[in-house]
Amino acid sequence: MILVSSCLAGVKCRYNGTASLNGKIQELVDDKKAMLVCPELLGGFLTPREPAEIIGGYGNDVLEGRAKVIEKSGKDVTELYINGALRTLELVNLNKVSCVVLKEYSPSCGSKMIYDGSFQNKKIAGDGVTSALLKREGIKVISEEELSEL
């Protein structure tokens, strides 16, 4: 079983109420080879929500307490991101998931790139909180661009 970011399957759960539909992912879901997850919704967020970025590091830094996830208005939402990551890990373990495909650039799901924390649309190499936790636990995490590896 594969776990995929809900927004990649067409669910309008991104921070701004949109989806990022990927045809290959939709096909995997339709064929019951993939199940959906949105770590941010699992963590307690609603859609739409204010944009947030990791300030002071990357996903692993958030998990270690060295960085925070902050909304554009300045509100600290770190705990919600950590909770979403932990609940996603539970889903992975309960469903014997072999691979997780996550939405790039998200402070939760970015598996190669995230925004730099300046809210200036600048991207940097790094993991989001959920991606970092799953990788730490030995779970294969890829971005949608790497689907050909499956």
* Overall pLDDT confidence: 96
Strand percentage lies at: 15-25%
Name the helicity range.
25-40%
Number of strands: 8
Compute the CA-based radius of gyration: 14 Å
Give the strand line-up of the largest sheet: 2-1-5-8
* Total number of helices: 5
Distance between the termini: 11 Å
Q: Low-confidence parts, pLDDT < 50 over ≥5 residues?
A: none
Helix-strand category: alpha/beta
Integer tally of domains: 1
What general outline do the C-alpha atoms trace?
A: globular
Main sheet: strands, sense, barrel: 4 strands, parallel
Succession of helices and strands: EHEHEHEHEEEHE
Pfam families: 2-thiour_desulf
Describe the model:
There is one protein chain. The chain has one domain. It has a four-stranded parallel beta sheet, with helices on both faces. The longest helix is centred in the middle third of the chain and has 17 residues, at 78-94. Helices cover 29% and strands 20% of the residues. Helix 4 crosses helix 5 (129-136). The mean pLDDT is 96. Strand 1 (2-5), helix 1 and strand 2 (34-37) form a beta-alpha-beta unit. The chain is globular, with a radius of gyration of 14 Å. The termini are close together. It has 150 residues and is an alpha/beta fold. The chain has helices at 23-30, 39-43, 59-63, 78-94, 129-136; strands at residues 2-5, 34-37, 52-55, 68-71, 99-102, 113-115, 123-125, 140-143. InterPro entries: 2-thiour_desulf.
